[in-house]
Design a protein that fits this description.
Length: about 110
Amino acid sequence: MTDPACDFYCDKILKGLLDVSVYLENEHVFAFHHSNPIWENHVVLLPKKHIESLITLEEADNDLLLELMRAAKLIARDFMERCGAARVYTNLGEYQSSKHLHWHIGCGKQLRPY
């Protein structure tokens, strides 16, 4: 398992060391507008607790996973209303640049390749 001390989201985003535009925040989850978006509307959703990836979630994380899915649903619904479509995905392994579970939620014109 990756050392959470080397985690971009834990070290920078959740500590408030980078100025990001917050989309949604509560006790357990944090969502912000991506600073280098792929799409016109691009939000990153993550748990405040360090979890490496979707496949490292444990039974004890079930309530947190439900909270993440509620937040993803809310953001995706907003994007569906605005754009008529939405993407919701997470990366694993080599595709995961930061080893902290997070979802990309986006819609609109693609601004750059991913």
